[in-house]
Amino acid sequence: MPLQRLVMLIFFLQPIAFGSWLPRIPDIQARLGLGPADLAIALLGMPVGILLTLPFAGRFVSRIGGRATVIYGFAVFLAVVALPAFADSIVTLFAALAVVGVALSTLELGLNVEADRAEKITGLVIMSRCHGFWSLGIMAGSLIGAGAVALQLPAQWSIAVVALLVLPVALAASVRLPADATAPAAVSEGARAPFKLPSVALLGICAFTFGITMTEGAIADWSAVYLKEVLLAGGAVTGLGYSIFACLVAAGRFGGDHMKARFGAVAISRVCGCAALLGMLIVLLAPNTLTALVGFAAIGFGVSVGFPLAVTAAASLTDRPAAASVAILSFMALLGFLIGPPLIGFAGELWGLRVGLAVLLVPLAVSLAFTRMLAPSAEKGQADILADKAA
User: Is the pTM of this model over 0.85?
Assistant: First the structure.
């Protein structure tokens, strides 16, 4: 299998088990008797796990390499991903999600480092398509989870079975990644490098990414609730919001590499940023379900290419090893993805869900303002690829 397709396969496999957890959140909430605010507190476990990992993950990946991180990361992540379903209190749910957050964030970092390395090895721009396959993977996992709900299968064992089935395929694919050609001495030197504060360029890229992924996480957890409670949709219609959103995310990512090559990173990020803001306004002002679905589609397209563009931009910075830059970006992205849902929950508890979702207008506007930070690194990365092809 060509390297670029192998990496895309691994991106597809990674979120399947986690996606099967998402439809079970209401079951766990009901079993533990948690209100919206209590659930929001429990969901903060993942961001806490990520914060605990942040100071060490970049050096860890620099020391052992992206390939080894992916191999070991899959084994650990799939071993712990079902733990939240076994929780018997808000405390154990918080702790289990923190453990999953540590494993998930480290594995995600390894994946993005390997995708960037595959671009450099093959001379092909694949980052957006890799994340398109990630979107398909989480969609597949959520459908599996929804099927388990329909069959009334226990959440604990259904998620564990999914993880067990994914594990051998994921490991078989991961061990086929090419060995890291970085010299051991250089890797050790990077791992021993003193801690440096992120550069202004990296902070700007992180600011751009945070609002994008925060919106992704919020729509994943609250779109169905919004359609049901605010617009009084019923039956299967309540699930259409996220389905349409996820389809447009995947579609945008599959076309993202072509759009970047033709129009440049800044131009497409600005168009997508405007689409996300417009879509959010449509959802908030929608008088009926059909109008809201149009808004969810626009938001999906709007946030689709943001993170892949940011990964390429961060990896092309030269002030620190690529793994360290991608580590900081990945953790900020995951923090946004995981902080969004509880933030909406707290705001919805106080002022209603329509106001809760309106909070997302602020981070989306910030993301749009920071699209210019993609220019130097994105254009440099594209120039390097073109130069490699010419050579």
Answer: no
